[in-house]
Amino acid sequence: MDVEHVIGAPHPRLRPFVTRYGGYRMRTEPGVHRGLPSRSLTLVVTLDGTVDLPQGRFATLCGGLHDEAVLITHDGFQHGIQCSLTPLGARAFFGLPAAELSGTSVGLDALDAPAAELRERVQTATTWTDRFAALDLVLGRLLRPVEQQVEVAWAWQRLAEGVPVGEIAAEVGWSRQHLTSRFAAEFGLTPKVVARVMRFERANRMLRGQRRPTLTEVAAACGYTDQAHFNRDWRALCGATPTEWIAAELPFVQGSETEQGAELSP
């Protein structure tokens, strides 16, 4: 097994819309990889091969927010860059709300993005730093002015801070039902589901870290009521229990949440 992960930071002007670049090069046994739910949309540019999903095969793609694992079939070799987009990035780069991509993945060419140019620039670059710089260049050209919906953006931020949905609705002066409707229209998922995904994401990041805590420690730190609750939620979002996921997937993603050993873009 040969696994390489390299983390890069996007150009400062892109950071409200892209949180990070993740370069990967993995040679493993053929199989199926789980793309896990997170608070980010996913933009992928392959350097070799394609990303093979139930919707089709893609050399470049953007996937929206989702609340279950995306199954990715591979032949044992995966090589490319994954960009984590904020929901606002969907409007900034593609001129549409994140809700329009929720639960699905589409090729970048379907979003009127210069998919072929982007892939060619990334393939031509010889270092991860240069590849990340190519992403900065092309994504920077796509940027357009966006107007953020203040209340919905506030709700997203408060969810990330662990504030209950009912309390957030009171803060913005809306009923819980109205907040849910407006939130889902922008992001494609309800506040309750996004809060669940954010909690799952935090647990997943803890397990990927350099020091892996016990499952009991993770459950307690992330606010699950008990180990059974942790297992049920993880299975619903991941398609496997934490123990099953650790055995099948953790060797391929270990350390991918850190910047150790990465060539960081300027």
From TrEMBL:
Q: Name one Pfam family in it.
A: HTH_18
Answer yes or no on keyword Transcription.
Answer: yes
Keywords carried by this UniProt record: DNA-binding, Transcription, Transcription regulation
Q: Which InterPro entries match?
A: AraC_XylS_family_regulators (IPR050204), DUF6597 (IPR046532), Homeodomain-like_sf (IPR009057), HTH_AraC (IPR018060)
- Where in this chain does the record put each HTH araC/xylS-type domain? 149-248
Record carries keyword Transmembrane: no
How is this protein named in the record?
Helix-turn-helix domain-containing protein
Q: Which organism is it from?
A: Lentzea rhizosphaerae
